[in-house]
Amino acid sequence: MTPFLELMLVLAIVVAGAKLAGWALGLLGQPTVVGEIAFGLLLGPTALDLLGMPLLTHAAETGETIKLLGELGVVLLMFVAGLETDMPAMRKVGMPALVSAAGGVVLPLAAGTGFGLLVGMPMAEAVFVGTILTATSVSISAQTLLELKKLRTKEGMTILGAAVIDDVLGILILSVVVALFASGGSAVPIWLVALKMVAYFAVGIALAPVVKALLRWFDRLPIAQPLVALALVLVLFYSWAAEYWGGVAAITGAYLVGILIGQTEFKHRLEKATQVFAYGFFVSIFFVDIGLRANLREALGGPLVWVALAIIVIAVLTKVLGSGFGARVMGFSNFEALRVGAGMVSRGEVGLIVAAIGVERGVIPQDLFAIMVLMVVVTTLVTPLFLRATFKFGPPSEEPRDEAREVSAQAAGGS
């Protein structure tokens, strides 16, 4: 086969298999993203090793192209996440969500970094482990709360707000860590890293009126899909500038421009249009590529299995305790605080994005990457179970009102 024919065949297998695996996991009441990752693990070196089969004579080129398409998928995923971030809603949830989010970032970051150093990891690896553990997937908890009819309770709204704030804080931390460690750490002065980041965000936000004016102008042009085309150009430019000029991760730029466009009248049109090709093609490739690159059989076949178990335990406990303590400080009862902490456990797609950036930049090795993928899968699976248990066996929460409404925009994407 020619390289192009081979690529088309593999992409057909990847996209179709990802969707079917996601559907199958959905029937079992699990997040569809777990099915897509599991399918990638099945195709990867953990099981079948598709790219190592003799039939594929251009496996290296095919694998590289799939990786690049997956990276584009994660940029689009973060753009959609930015579009769906409801800034007014974030302001309304107030201090409980902010303090819970802070607790759910500080404790996992400190514990993950401390554990990494304890087992002999270099500083860069240890800090990145902590950074991955700060992530929270708002979509997993939101879906569970909606099923339980607890979305509009005090705990439910706090979880949603804290998870979104958590993502913003996590992306900022990721940007700092990438800037400091991805190119060797000490080679870049901290003051220069900070200056470049501040300058990038200042200029990017200051250009918001220009972005809005450009969208309005393009929307009037008599050409096919002008609004979507310009939005994609802005996503690509902001993402490129974030890494090339700002010294931060490219996804930071995608998320930023998503938030900026999300404050315009074009939000819903672009949200709907972008989701079609993002979730229909590129995002599935990203999740499968995670599995293709993670070799769980090798990573868990030796003494690293104890490291994996320890990281999973740390991942669960630090979110429950960190976010739960934040809620308790803000006046929640013990059981209400436990519910908030349980709802923040899932790392979901956010944890995968951070882990993928770490291995791509050479900050973490492949075996540690595989362990972090396993941690993401386990925390994503146990979160719905934890949440259901806390609401079932604990004292009744304040009954929700207006349950017929759909989950808020910031919680709808990513699964």
Search tags:
415 residues, mainly alpha, Na+/H+ antiporter like fold, disordered C terminus
Average per-residue pLDDT, rounded, comes to: 86
What count of helical segments does DSSP give? 18
Instruction: Please write the CATH class name.
Output: Mainly Alpha
The sequence of SSEs as H and E is HHHHHHHHHHHHHHHHHH
Give the amount of beta strand, in percent: under 5%
Return the CATH architecture: Up-down Bundle
CATH-assigned fold name: Na+/H+ antiporter like fold
* Cα distance spanning the termini: 34 Å
Number of strands: 0
Unreliable sequence segments: 399-415
What Rg do the Cα atoms give?
A: 21 Å
Q: What is the share of helical residues? A: over 70%
Number of domains: 1
Overall shape: it is globular
Instruction: Please identify the structural class as seen in this structure.
Output: mainly alpha
Largest sheet composition: none
Molecular structure report:
Residues 399-415 have low confidence and may be disordered. The chain has a single domain (69-412), classed as Up-down Bundle (Na+/H+ antiporter like fold), CATH 1.20.1530.20. The chain contains 18 helices and no strands. By secondary structure, the chain is an all-alpha fold. It has helices spanning 3-27, 32-43, 59-84, 87-118, 123-133, 138-148, 154-181, 190-206, 208-219, 226-244, 250-262, 267-293, 296-299, 304-329, 334-343, 348-360, 366-393, 409-412. It is globular. Helix 1 crosses helix 12 and helix 4 crosses helix 7. The two termini are 34 Å apart.
